[in-house]
Write a structure and sequence with these properties.
This protein is of the alpha+beta class. The chain has 45 helices and 31 strands. Among the domains are: about 90 residues, no CATH class; about 120 residues, no CATH class; about 160 residues, no CATH class; about 190 residues, Bromo adjacent homology (BAH) domain (SH3 type barrels); about 45 residues. The strands form 9 sheets. Strands 20, 23, 24, 25, 26, 27, 28 and 31 form an 8-stranded antiparallel sheet that branches. It is globular.
Length: about 1200
């Protein structure tokens, strides 16, 4: 027997999935070893060449040996085919239920299902159906086991949804609109039962004195909401205490808790506000008029223990106010479980749901732990779960708890927050959503009104807002009330988006009814009132105005991204660019900005070219960078000192608002109020009218109130919420657009479910009612594979500890292998290399060797390198944070000291060159000054505090643009160059106190007189009066110019009309007059000459300026003139031609003919003589720029 030659041509064991038919048989059909084609059903296989060669070489051997080899060969092939058929069945098999909890990858049947779930549900990388199918086919081609089909994966998702719950549900608004929401309770239960999120959750307000870093440190949670909204229970030493229930203290006295508060170091000591209960002859009496605060550690007996005690005296008669709440109404529902109230932050924004540039508006609501129609659904969800708490599993205490969500505040941009508050916005007389400041334009321009704009007014009352909405609804019932409604909205500053729909409907209905003669006024009024009553019952006003625990006017804090960066900083940037362009100094600023030292700022490299080339299209990150460094480039380029002061104050405001924690809230707010006030006064000097036209300046005055109420301003910044817009857009793009809100809701539910399972979250088994979690092996996968963790925004890697060392990478040889180069040197060699002199470290001997290291991690987790400026500690006790003693220095070298006789004896330290801190501020910028000394010192890693940013004192050194620097493009050096600053010395520097990074340590390193911003202002009352006067003067000048222009145009129109009437007779005699004029040519020319001489070239230009460009081009064609150029060029061309040829101005009939011709020509051009129903001609594409790379020539360039 022999093997046929066709098979012996292949050299690898190759599997082909292109056909499922068996290959042509390579074996003699009469042979005993012939395989039946039915046994080889499935993918084709080819035999290895080496096996075939060995068979041919041994052909002369016994047939029994060859038969044995062939039997083994075909047996292995048969097993492979059987395994392949098994995998085929496993791929197509649909998972109907979850595997056993003891399964290796529970709740997933196989590892492939888990990997698919975690990849396809990654927030930042969305997959389309085709892409998912390609990924699965890729895995199959690599012979990965148990790879499911896309259909099987979707069926498994349905099983998981049934097991873990489906949070997406339908909601119908009061206007009949349908949209889908993800249930708040389901999301909260996942957060509570997940170990990662549970460790960061808190349920009680924290009282930390003057320290503030989180929302639970704010005034609202401490005292701004009612007691019933906060958490009801607290467990201490194994006992559960409820609010509103009497307890007995260790002293034997009684007490009624009302509100739990955490105090002490690390907020670990529970305290309680409540009523003291006094024992009288008639019984117990609660002192409800005064609250006291006691430690929970003084509690001895719970309510149940108190009332079961036979010695309990009971309450006196008349104590129904406290006894009616005992026991607590939710005690029976809780059944021994803890009841926590969870504060939520609700963010709402409009975001495009399309991939293209077409704006496809979607409204997204994110919650951290809309039009107002969406808020109806949000409010209903809050109300439902607050009354019926959500059952969840506490991943920390491993027990069931009850959760009640309640809204804390609503961050957002200013237009969205105005809609939340039913504010009419910027065009109203009262434009502020927080207070009642404002009035008419005349009042705001007066001395009193202008001064009120920089102060907070009377806080708006939700009840007054509701009354204004009701008044507008009632006004819509009256006839011809459209103008009255508009005036009412402008005057009151109230305009509710839900009520507006009803108002427009009532106006339309009223107009229709009043046009019917058969309707009496009484019938019309009754019909409209009935419609209004139906709308009220369905909900026709802002649901946030009467939401429990919400004062929406105080719960929409001023958002710093849109108000400060995209508001104040943007306005002053525009004014600065205007001044620099006007003075021809913008390029100097560009060169200085290129020369800025960015070390210590901890920001990406500043894109100077983009900022300067596209100065009108910057975003928040650009303005944040400019606020930190711009003053160092314009200190002598702007003639107006007030503009420079505005930048100094704006930068200081930015530093104060971008702080993550506040050590002393009282001191902080005093300075913040002063900075805001100074900034507004400087603005009144620079551009007083902008205070009236840009309400964001007024919104600044409310920041201190919101910070005291909710914590640092970064907590209600929208930057972190808007980062989810990309995820939201991805969920919208990868849907069929038939049910967008449902698809997006399901997509987000899938993201939460996959992340919850992968990170060890718990869920309730529907069959056993036990709380389950994923298998340990499954949880370990995402911790050990950073790629999968990164897909879900998780990072389980450990941050480098302070004092960690970064070494230089080893150099590579020409072949790419790493080379070990001994770079150790003695202390004298180090000193010679650095060209300095200083004694060796005290503990080191002359035999120690030193090696340079790349970086050291400071106490603030900065990685410092050679040349950086740092703050270091000179305190004897480096672990004492209460009394730090900091100094400034520059890193000269980072060294590793090694003992040659003991390899374990290794120390690290930095060689520092000290800065001397000047006693006075910089005379222009008002910042501390540093002088680089010639003294050096050594510092251990634990003494290095942080990195800081310093800039050269160019104003004192009179530095110029005297150096050329090459320009890099595409990471390559070009032949182009730019001018950069050439510093005159290396000793005079300015400490950049406007840098956001490490501002806390910078403040602690400076004396009190050197902290903050210092701007000299004169009489503040005079500044405001002068500002108001400038506003009135400017407005009067604009009105006068507008009236003068209008009067000139009206006078010329009258004169022109009279001249045209005199030259152009009545229409019925027009033809006769024209015929007579043709017959008498000489008389017509004489008349033309007389008319032309009467019109000067100025009058002709003014006349032509009233015509459109098309008419002007028609006149140019009529006189055979050039039609190219701007409108001004066309006017000059026609006026000069008419003046030089003594022609009269075109008559009205000529202009009408040109208009008719232009209209007909445009219509013909648009139709393009195409048949009816055909497609319009393709739009002409703009040619690519010269020298630019288009899509077509990119491949050629590559």
């Amino acid at each position: 027997m022999s093997i046929s030659s066709p098979i012996s041509q292949t050299s690898t064991f190759h599997r082909s999935d292109s056909h499922h038919n068996p290959p042509e048989s390579p074996v003699d059909p009469d042979s005993d070893s012939y395989l039946d084609p039915h046994d080889l059903s499935g993918p084709s296989y080819k035999v290895p060449l080496n096996m075939l060669s060995s068979a041919e070489e041994n052909a002369s051997s016994d047939d029994s040996d060859l038969d044995a080899e062939l039997d083994a060969l075909f047996s292995s092939v048969r097993k492979i085919h059987q395994l392949d058929r098994t995998q085929q069945r496993q791929r197509t098999h649909t998972i109907k239920e979850l595997p056993s909890p003891t399964a290796e990858y529970y709740p997933y049947p196989h590892l492939a299902f888990y990997l698919m779930d975690i990849i396809f549900n990654s927030p930042r990388t969305r997959f389309s159906r085709i892409q998912k199918a390609v990924v699965l086919e890729f895995a199959r081609l690599l012979d990965a086991p148990y790879v499911p089909t896309l259909h099987a994966y979707k069926e498994f998702q349905q099983v998981m949804k049934k097991e873990m719950g489906d949070p997406t549900y339908k909601f119908t608004s009061s206007f009949g609109n349908i949209f889908y929401l993800n249930d708040i309770g389901e999301s909260l239960a996942k957060d509570m039962s997940n170990p990662l999120s549970r460790q960061n959750m808190t349920f009680y307000p924290h009282h930390c004195g003057n320290y503030m870093a989180q929302t639970w440190h704010g005034k609202k949670m401490l005292e701004g909401v009612s007691d019933d909204i906060l958490s009801l229970t607290l467990r201490h030493e194994g006992k559960t205490y409820w609010v509103n229930e009497i307890v007995q203290r260790t002293s034997g006295t009684y007490f009624i808790p009302k509100r739990w508060v955490l105090r002490g170091k690390n907020n670990s000591i529970p305290w309680c506000f409540g009523y003291e209960v006094k024992e009288t002859e008639q019984g117990l009496v609660a002192a409800t008029k005064k609250r006291i605060c006691v430690a929970v550690s003084t509690f001895a007996r719970t309510y149940e223990e108190v009332i079961s005690n036979s010695k309990f005296p009971g309450f006196a008669v008349g104590q129904d106010e406290v006894t009616s709440q005992m026991p607590h109404p939710l005690r029976e529902t809780a059944a021994g479980r803890q009841v926590y109230s969870i504060p939520l932050i609700i963010f709402m924004d409009d975001v495009s749901g399309a991939r293209s540039t077409q704006w496809n508006k979607h409204y997204s609501v994110y919650m951290s732990n809309e039009p107002l129609e969406l808020m109806q659904g949000i409010k209903d969800s809050f109300k439902k779960h607050f009354a019926n708490p959500v059952i969840a599993f506490d991943a920390l205490t491993k027990e069931e708890v009850l959760l009640r969500p309640w809204p804390l505040f609503w961050p957002g941009d200013n237009p969205m927050q105005a809609e939340h508050c039913s504010s009419a916005g910027l065009n109203a007389s009262h434009f502020c959503r927080t207070c009642e400041v404002g009035g008419s334009q005349a009042y705001c321009s007066s001395d009193k009104g202008f001064s009120e704009l920089i102060l907070p007014g009377i806080i708006c009352d939700p009840e007054k807002t509701r009354a204004a909405i009701q008044a507008q609804l009632d006004l819509s019932l009256e006839p011809r009330s459209g103008n009255k409604l508009r005036s009412a909205a402008v005057d009151s500053g109230v305009k509710d988006s839900l009520a507006q729909v009803v108002i427009e409907k009532l106006l339309t209905l009223g107009k229709s009814l009043r046009s019917d003669p058969g309707q009496t006024p009484q019938d019309i009024q009754k019909t409209l009132k009935d419609e209004l009553e139906v709308a009220k019952n369905a909900g026709c006003e802002n649901p946030l105005l009467q939401m429990q625990g919400v004062n929406i006017h105080l719960d929409t804090p001023t958002e710093i991204l849109h108000t400060v960066l995209l508001g104040i900083v943007k306005y002053f940037w525009g004014q600065t660019v205007y001044v620099l362009d006007k003075n021809k100094k913008f390029e100097i600023m560009r060169s200085r900005l290129h020369s800025i030292d960015q070390r210590g700022l901890n920001i990406p490299a500043i894109p100077v070219s983009y900022i300067c080339d596209y100065k009108g299209a910057l975003v928040g990150k650009h303005f944040k960078s400019l606020a930190q460094v711009l003053v160092f480039t314009i200190y002598d380029l702007v003639n107006n000192q007030s503009l420079l002061d505005a930048w100094i104050l704006t930068s200081r405001l930015t530093v104060m608002l971008w702080q993550t924690e506040i050590e002393n809230i009282e001191t902080y707010l005093v300075e913040l109020e002063q900075v805001i006030a100074d900034l507004l006064y400087v603005t009144a000097i620079c551009s007083p009218s902008i205070i009236l036209s840009k309400p964001k300046f007024h919104f600044l005055v409310h920041l201190p109130v919101y910070i005291r109420r909710f914590g640092p301003a970064l907590l209600f910044s929208t930057e972190r919420f808007e980062s989810f817009n990309g995820i939201f857009r991805g969920a919208s793009v990868f849907s069929n657009r038939q049910s967008p809100s449902r698809d997006i809701g399901l997509s987000f539910a899938g993201l939460d479910r996959a992340k919850h399972l992968a990170t060890g979250g718990y869920w309730k088994d529907t069959r056993t009612n036990d709380w389950r979690t994923a298998s340990p092996k499954l949880q370990e996968l995402i911790h050990s594979h950073s790629a999968f963790a990164g897909l879900h925004g998780l990072d389980f890697s450990e941050r480098p500890a302070p004092g960690s060392i970064y070494f230089y990478p080893q150099e590579r040889s020409a072949t790419g292998s790493r080379m070990h180069i001994d770079r150790q040197e003695t202390w004298d060699c180090v000193m010679a290399r650095l060209e300095i002199e200083m004694p060796s470290p005290s503990r080191a001997t002359n035999g120690f060797l030193y090696t340079s290291v790349k970086g050291i991690v400071t106490q603030s987790n900065d990685i410092i390198k050679q040349g950086d400026s740092v703050i270091y500690s000179v305190s004897e006790n480096l672990t004492d944070p209460e009394h730090p003693e900091y100094r400034f220095a520059r890193i000269v070298e980072l060294l590793c000291c090694t003992n040659p006789t003991d390899s374990s004896d290794v120390t690290y330290f930095a060689i520092l060159q000290k800065y001397s801190l000047g006693p006075t501020r910089h005379h222009i910028l008002g910042m501390p000054q540093l002088v680089l000394d010639t003294a050096f010192c050594l510092c251990e890693p634990q003494g290095l505090i942080c990195c800081v940013n310093v800039q050269h004192n160019c104003s004192q050194g009179r530095c110029t643009l005297g150096r050329k620097a090459p320009i890099h493009q595409e990471r390559e050096l070009t032949e182009r160059w730019r001018l950069v600053v050439c510093h005159s010395d290396d000793s005079q520097y300015i400490l950049n106190t406007q840098a956001l990074h490490n501002s806390k340590y910078i403040e602690e390193s400076l004396a009190i007189e050197l902290r903050g911003a210092l701007v000299q202002l004169g009489d503040r009352t005079a500044i405001l009066k002068q500002g108001a006067e400038n506003v009135r003067t400017k407005k009067a000048q604009k009105d006068a110019n507008r009236q003068a222009t209008k009067a000139t145009k009206d006078a010329f129109a009258r004169t022109l009309g009279e001249s045209l009437v005199a030259r152009d007779p009545e229409p019925e005699h027009a033809n006769t007059h024209e015929d007579a004029a043709d017959d008498a040519g000489t008389s017509t020319q004489a008349a033309a000459s007389t008319s032309a001489s009467a019109a000067t070239i100025e009058q002709q230009s003014l006349y032509f300026s009233q015509l459109t460009v098309e008419i002007l081009k028609g006149l140019c064609r009529k006189h055979k003139l050039t039609v190219s150029g701007s409108k001004a060029q066309l006017i000059d061309r026609l006026a000069s031609f008419h003046q030089s040829h003594s022609l009269p101005l075109p008559t009205r009939s000529v202009i009408e003919e040109l208009k008719m011709g232009a209209t007909a020509s445009g219509s013909a051009t648009r139709s393009h003589m195409r048949p009816e129903g055909s497609e319009p001609p393709a739009k002409r594409q703009r040619p690519p720029p010269l020298g630019g790379r288009t899509v077509d020539n990119l491949d050629a360039v590559a």
